[in-house]
């Protein structure tokens, strides 16, 4: 199926306007000055085979905000810290085994039931406080984990 002259002109204009397929204005005018014996399709092919405009390169732009990487930062799951804070008081209320293996099992089970909340914090910065609904979810997950580990301890 051959292209009409209108379609070829659209393709040529698109290639001239787009940065990835742009030609210099000189290249486009050189295409027009070729002998009229060449068809429009041959002109389009010749224009595509010529080298791209070397003047249009992508320049890296600097952001106007200064970098604040002067202090080391850490990636933290805030839920993990909150579960560890709630663990001791919950263990005291439910008289569960307090060995290291049971504590780790409880924390793992509770964290698997809670959605993760990752944050980037400065070294030594405390995790922000949580809303009451999230606090209730954490306490519920810890209590359920304690009951599960207490009924089937792995030691």
What is shown here, in short?
The chain is mostly helical. The protein is 53% helix and 6% strand.
Polypeptide structure, described:
- Helices cover 53% and strands 6% of the residues.
- By secondary structure, it is mainly alpha-helical.
- The chain folds into two domains: 45 residues, no CATH class; 79 residues, no CATH class.
- The chain has a two-stranded antiparallel sheet with strand order 1-2.
- The longest helix is centred in the C-terminal third of the chain and has 20 residues.
Task: Give the biggest sheet.
Answer: 2 strands, antiparallel
Distance between the termini: 77 Å
Number of helices: 6
User: How would you sum up the global shape?
Assistant: elongated
Number of strands: 2
Task: Give the topology.
Elements: H1 5-17, H2 25-32, H3 40-49, E1 73-77, H4 78-94, H5 100-113, E2 118-122, H6 132-151
Features:
155 residues, mainly alpha, two-stranded antiparallel ribbon, 53% helix
């Amino acid at each position: 199926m051959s292209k009409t002259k209108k379609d070829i002109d659209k393709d040529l204009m698109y290639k001239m306007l787009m940065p990835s397929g742009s030609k210099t204005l000189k290249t486009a005018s050189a295409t027009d000055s070729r002998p009229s014996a060449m068809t429009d399709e041959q002109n389009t092919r010749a224009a595509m085979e010529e080298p791209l405009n070397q003047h249009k390169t992508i320049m890296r732009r600097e952001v106007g905000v200064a970098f604040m990487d002067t202090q080391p930062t850490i990636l933290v799951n805030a839920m993990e810290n909150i579960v560890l804070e709630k663990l001791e008081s919950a263990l005291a209320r439910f008289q569960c085994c307090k060995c290291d293996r049971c504590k780790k099992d409880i924390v793992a089970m509770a964290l698997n039931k809670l959605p993760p909340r990752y944050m980037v914090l400065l070294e030594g910065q405390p995790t922000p406080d949580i809303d009451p609904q999230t606090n209730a979810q954490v306490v519920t997950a810890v209590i359920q984990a304690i009951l599960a580990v207490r009924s089937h301890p792995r030691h």
